Structure formats: C-alpha cells, structure tokens
UniProtKB/TrEMBL annotation:
Record's bilayer topology term: Multi-pass membrane protein
Top-level taxonomic group: Eukaryota
Primary localization: membrane
Protein name: RTA1 like protein-domain-containing protein
Keywords of this entry: Membrane, Transmembrane, Transmembrane helix
Length: 296
C-alpha cells in the first residue's frame, strides 16, 4: 500500500476520488500512469475538433486533388483515435493500460504525418515561385525530409509500441523510452534544418510572394510549421524526463504544448489550404501558376 502513496517515484498517480481497482485486472496498473486523471472535457474537445478537421481536410484534399497533402488527414485521424482513448481513460478507467497505450501511441505519432504534409508544401512553393530561390532543388528537399520523416516515424512507432509492451508487462520502459527519444530528437533536428531552409527560401522569394499574392498563405504556412515544431520540442523534452517527469505528469503542459499547437496549426491549414493557395501538384505547371492567385 505504501507504494501507492509514492506516485511520482513510480511514474504514476492515485486519484483519491477514484481508487485503483482491486484486485487488479490483466490490463490494469496500480497507479494512473498519466500522472493525473485525464480531463474528460479536454479529451472530448480534442476528439470532436480533430474529427471535424479530419472530415474537412479529407474533403479539401479530394476537392483540390492535392494528393501530396494526403498524409495530413491521416495524421488527424490518428489524433481522433488518441483522444477517444483519453476519453475512455477519463470516463471509464484511468488505470487501464490499454487506453493509456493507445492514446500515447497515436497522439505521439500523429504529428509525424502532419510534418510530412508540411514538407511537401515547401516543394510545391519552390516549383511555383522559382527554383533559383531555394538552396536545394525541390525534389531533393522532398526526398530528404520525407525520408527523415520515415526514419522518425519508425523510431517513434517502435519506441511507443515498446513502451506499451513494457507497461503491460509492468517492466522498466527505459530502453523503449530511449528509442522514442531518439526518434523525437532526430525529428527535432530534421525539422530545424527544414525551418532554416524554408526561411532562406522565403527571404529570397519575397518579391515573387508579394507579386503572386501569397503573403497570407506563406505567413500561415510559417506559423503552422513553427507550431508543429514547438510541439515536437515539447515531446522531446517530455520524453527526456521520462514518464514520471513534471512535463508528463501535469496535464496543463499537455494542453498548452501538445493539444493547442496542433489545433492551431491544423486550423491555419484549414483556412489557407495548399490546394487552394498553391496548386494541385508538387510540380506546378505554368498554367497553374497563372491560375492560382489567391486573394486571401
């Protein structure tokens, strides 16, 4: 019983208003691994918003035939699954390991798909505004960062899945956490390089951006990219601390540094969708360049 009174040391929390089940079921932990009882209101808000965003972005991708941006609604669908699992934790049983594992896996991995969509936008902008403004050719940028995204995805999926296995077996998840940490660190590095290359391109192409009336879209694209990067940096810091650290055991950090940045980034791309503002293809034709001159 004393072990239950030391939740921080064990990476968990015992809710005085929601005692742990006794006897413990096969998929139940003696503590709430979140470090808190998840907020039902936040989880429900996340599930509803991301469901609406998934439907909207799926429609936009189909309408504008921007198949290069198809990873974005996939990432949003991942978010929906993750927040539904948080709803079950908050409302049904916060001690259930399966709910924790599902939400952790899907919410951690989802922004990797969102980042893949962001990478394709820069390639489309380079084709439209002029390759001479970019440090690297658009095809090179696309393949380098999509490959980086794939590496980060594999590491994060493997790490998140192994954390789930270790938690289910009630074993030390340190090694699995380090795998996830490596994937997040690589993603932070890759996105950092991407942001530098994007900034150089935008500065060099500023005259073309103004001429083609793309200022609002480029501003939205830049802000959304930085928001996704902020969230990735938060996850890196959280993972470095481990499951029992302050960043993972206080829901205010989850709400302000995980939930809010992703919602705002997705909202920006909902209003300024690349299919409407840039074009239907990563490699834009001259006709498309002339056709797409958004007034937004």
């Amino acid at each position: 019983m004393n072990a239950l009174l030391e939740p921080r040391a064990r990476g968990g929390y015992v809710d005085p208003n929601w005692p742990p089940p006794f006897p413990l079921g096969k998929n139940e932990a003696p503590v709430i691994i979140y470090g808190y009882t998840p907020s039902f209101a936040l989880a429900m808000l996340g599930a509803i918003l991301f469901l609406l965003f998934t439907v909207t972005h799926t429609y936009q991708v189909t309408r504008y035939r921007t198949w290069y941006f198809a990873s974005f609604p996939v990432g949003l669908a991942f978010e929906v699954v993750g927040y539904i699992a948080r709803i079950l934790s908050a409302k049904k049983n916060p001690y259930n390991l399966i709910y924790f594992i599902i939400q952790y896996f899907f919410i951690v991995v989802a922004p990797v798909c969102l980042a893949a969509g962001v990478y394709t936008i820069l390639s489309a902008l380079i084709h439209r505004l002029g390759r001479q403004h970019s440090v690297l050719p658009p095809r090179v940028i696309l393949w380098v960062f999509i490959t980086s995204d794939a590496i980060a995805t594999v590491c994060q999926i493997a790490g998140a899945a192994l954390i789930g296995v270790k938690q289910t077996r009630r074993e030390d998840p340190a090694v699995a956490n380090n795998i996830l940490l490596g994937g997040l660190a690589y993603q932070v590095f890759a996105m950092g390089v991407f942001i530098v290359l994007t900034a150089i391109f935008i500065v060099r192409a500023r005259a073309q951006i103004a001429q083609q009336r793309l200022g609002a879209f480029v501003a939205a694209f830049s802000a959304a990219t930085l928001l996704i990067y902020l969230r990735t940096c938060f996850r890196l810091a959280e993972t470095a601390e481990g499951l029992g650290g302050d960043l993972s055991t206080k829901e205010v950090f989850f709400g302000t540094l995980e939930f809010m940045p992703i919602v705002l980034a997705v909202l920006l791309f909902t209003v300024w969708h690349p299919g409407r503002c840039v074009g239907r293809h990563i490699s834009a034709t001259k006709e498309e360049v002339a056709e797409y001159s958004p007034s937004a």
